[in-house]
């Protein structure tokens, strides 16, 4: 979580420190910066620089580490606090609007790579960790940068466009079109052109208002909903007995788990 917050601080938005060194220049080194924390058995950090001018590809690595060294000695704690508060708000927003996405990722990652129950708890409820990070000083974040960015092994991958491959693809496309025209012949080509023009003209016709007005607006009171019964193991036994017909089919006492189980029947 600390690394995720750190990378948010470094590169999340146009006001981030790395953007000032790479993007917000009269002569930019790249157009966008993307980062990813691959949280597996061993953590991997990936940072990508997009749309780098060909002649500046070799400048990216040195500029990056020079920038990180400078940032390491000049942590803006006001901005760091803002990033942490924003992350807490995003977490609450995610569990309210899309809990399936927020929790499924954490559950799957912990199933594959989690070491103990504490890992799972931290993943499902990161606010505690984020609140602890709010209490850290600039020295903590500088030490994190040194340990995980400056003093750790890294791999630099440079992707240069190939002029030869571009010419090869362009020639292949021209050859394909030439071959296809030959296969169709002048008469068939002319007929297809006419069909295309007719199709485009037909698609451009506006939908008549009278056609749209013919569709009746249904009465929402007549919408049929599925009748659903629900039973959960976090309710008291007498509540389950009175609230659900499912209880007689489910023996909740056998599920001794630290989270609730819910059964729905339609």
Q: Classify the fold: give the CATH topology of the largest domain.
A: Cytochrome Bc1 Complex, Chain A, domain 1
Mean pLDDT: 83
End-to-end CA span = 40 Å
Helical content band: 55-70%
Main sheet strand line-up: 1-2
Radius of gyration over C-alpha positions, nearest whole angstrom: 29 Å
Description of the structure:
55% of the residues lie in helices and 8% in strands. A two-stranded antiparallel ribbon has the order 1-2. The mean pLDDT is 83. It has helices at residues 2-11, 17-22, 60-72, 77-97, 99-113, 117-124, 127-134, 138-150, 163-203, 209-213, 237-243, and strands at 32-38, 44-50, 229-232, 262-265. It has three domains: 2-150, Metalloenzyme, LuxS/M16 peptidase-like (Cytochrome Bc1 Complex, Chain A, domain 1, 2-Layer Sandwich), CATH 3.30.830.10; 163-205; 229-265, no CATH class. It is mainly alpha-helical and 266 residues long. The protein starts with a helix and ends with a strand. It is built from eleven helices and four strands.
